[in-house]
Amino acid sequence: MRYDVRGHGRSKVTAPLLSSADDLLSLLDELKIRRATLVGLSMGSNIALDCALTHPERVDELVLLSPGLAGIKASGSLDWMQPIAAAVKSGDSMRAAELWWESPLLSGVRQAGRSAARYRAVVIDNASVWTIAAPPPQLDPPAGKRLKEIKSRVIAVAGELDRSGSLEFAHMIAEGVPQGRAVAIPGAGHILAIEKPLEVGRLVVSDR
To answer: CA–CA distance from 174 to each of 18, 137, 181, 191 (Å)?
Structure first.
């Protein structure tokens, strides 16, 4: 089962926004899914981690692709994000989306041949997420400070070429949770599900 996070795809932004983890729980309830293995990419990994912390009884396993880690800063430089942040601050969501498409994190997607134009359209169509007035509430304390509380088994996966800090975060997560392992995918950047779909598929369905 896949779904559009608030503000993405065909979903709508409601005011005030629920926490993303509670939004996911409501969807699982609606679909009568008692327990699930959660697979998240980038921001989706943060949502999956938060859900495992707030509703551990509903989560079997976590597969975290290109994870972030709320409350923890990566050691590498994120200077490439500064123009995007400036566009967000000025309220120019379309400019922010265009810069995001041109960013190092989407370099592998830009090289996706004939599919690249379709992926770019998705990025531009979702431009409004950059300037949502009030983002969903975050966990306090954040997931990065609570990894020992994660009860589920965790696979944290990152591309070796990822410039977001995800590879560093994947190792932090694997070392911080009771049952975790980190996987590095050679020649891959940030958007693993597009860049390395076969490798990601094997990780999702194997090692059970």
So the answer is: 28, 25, 5, 20
Tell me if the bond preceding 137 is cis, omega within 30° of 0.
no
Give how far the C-alpha of residue 167 lies from the chain's centroid of Cα atoms, to the nearest Å. Answer: 13
Per-residue pLDDT for the chain (208 aa), expressed as one digit of tens each?
999 998 888 888 877 788 999 999 999 999 999 999 999 999 999 999 999 999 999 999 999 999 999 999 888 788 999 999 999 999 999 999 999 999 999 999 999 888 999 999 999 999 999 998 888 888 999 999 999 999 999 999 999 999 899 999 999 999 999 999 999 999 999 999 999 999 999 999 875 5
Domain boundaries, given as residue ranges, for the chain: 20-75+135-205
CATH classification code of 20-75+135-205: 3.40.50.1820
**Can you give the pTM of this predicted structure?**
0.93
Of 206, 191, 197, nearest to 45 by C-alpha is 191
Burial of 75 (0-12, 13-18, 19+ CB in 10 A): exposed
